[in-house]
Amino acid sequence: MDNGTLLAAIDMGSNSFRLEIGRYHSGHIERVEYIKEPVRQGNGLDAEKNLSQAAMERGWECLARFAERLHGFKKHQVRVVATQTLREARNRQDFLRNAQSILGFSIEVVSGHEEARLIYQGVSRLLPQSHERRLVVDIGGRSTEMILGQDFTAHKMESYRLGSVAWSGRYFPAGVIAHNAFQTAEIAAQAVLDEALEIFSPASWDLAYGSSGTVSAVADLLAAAGWAPGEVSRCGLDWLVDRLTKAGHVDQVRLDGLRDDRRPVLCGGVSVLRAIFDLFGIDKMLPAEGALRQGALFDLIDRETDGADVRERTVRWLGERFLVDQAQAQRVSNVSRALFSQVAQVDAQNDPYSRKLAWAAQLHEIGTHISHDAAYHHGAYILDHVDAPGFSCSELHRMSQLVLGQRGKLRKLGSLLAEELFVKQLMCLRLAVLLCHARRMPEHESVSLRYQTGCFSLSTRAGWAKRFPQSAWLLSEEVLAWQKSDWTFSAEIR
């Protein structure tokens, strides 16, 4: 990546949307601009887990303002990440379709593990280099991430469904603050986090850091009240809870440094934080400057650096974990990319869609670890549910559908068969699997694939059918399979 390149990350959190713009220079990122808007989408989820129209409109309006600031940015310079609220929302596609059109960039709804990984990347990159073992806690609006790491590597990551927005709405309704409400909220938080005590036992880390909103806000409030700056202590938390309960209502809280956007969700966040202090025996937590958005920026750098894209490492790890035949996976990957370069007219090595096709090809047999019978169904299920660092939920689902469609009937893929790019990837993967059926490298250079407005045509060099009769028969069957779709596939097998 060239020095001076501008990069941008958007964190679409449950309480606030944040835009971070930085300038790359020799492996570092210098902040250019930071914008935070309290959107409070987490409050817009109803009992059926649907986002309200008002919540969606608040999000769209914010993204429209961000879009104006990002005018002129290229796709590889921007990463947009959505977290727990959109993970939960049943109608998220209704929001995302319009949001992506307004913003002009794709939005990644990431899993809790991926959110945790990005948080640790952001925190670790902005801390002084040290070999200390770190516990990083990020209390968001509707989820809390906990990460155990050292240096730049996160070793354990978990995401739990509790946060400042959710706990404020549940235990401090209408802004009423009572002592027994704090007790109930803390007990409920400890019940959710009880299993985390085994994963993140106090003996496994040296220092605790708090990332993002809640911990940062509490540290600022305590510092303004005369407590030691740059930390959150147990005594300070107790003092803060006492001040909040004496106020009786969030509108009556009078604390120097309390921002209006933090006021409605402060009690929920503090109750979760104090529960963590009690459960893990923490006396002091340090607020960290880095957060998810910085992690997303550094991830953009890695994706532009040869061999550094975490998704490449994840694909290799999944292949090893599920005992994939690596030689066959590589054959199918190479053949599918070669065919894709013919129909998509792209650089097979650098095009992002070619790379994603290659990852699906490398994992196309992942389901055989469960059973050879209908292995492509098992493989699709695994990819839809596995925690895969670096990948968004939509990327994993796209790969799962390619794996599902690698053979068999096409109608199982539903509306995806209306997307030209997906169909091109699918066609190339199916043909690659077919041509590699003997589990050796096929003579694919003798096969030509063309595409023109809904029609695929394949041709072979003279004598190919005689040398490879089984492949020729499989190709004829593939022609029949596509006759039951809205796409045309013809083959001249000589």
Tell me the major beta sheet.
6 strands, mixed
The CATH homology group name of the largest domain = Exopolyphosphatase. Domain 2
Mean pLDDT: 94
**Uncertain stretches of 5 or more adjacent residues:** none
Please indicate the percent range of residues in DSSP E strands (runs of 2 or more).
15-25%
CATH fold-type name of the largest domain: Nucleotidyltransferase, domain 5
Shape: elongated
In which range does the helix fraction lie?
Answer: 40-55%
Task: Give a structural overview.
With about 500 residues, this protein is α/β, with parallel strands linked by helices. It is built from 19 helices and 14 strands. A hairpin with a 4-residue loop joins strand 6 (about 135-140) and strand 7. Helix 1 (about 55-70) runs parallel beside helix 3 (about 90-105) and helix 15 (about 375-385) runs antiparallel to helix 16 (about 395-405). The chain is elongated, with a radius of gyration of 26 Å. The two termini are about 45 Å apart.
Features:
Nucleotidyltransferase, domain 5, 19 helices, six-stranded mixed beta sheet, 46% helix, five-stranded mixed beta sheet, elongated, Hypothetical protein af1432
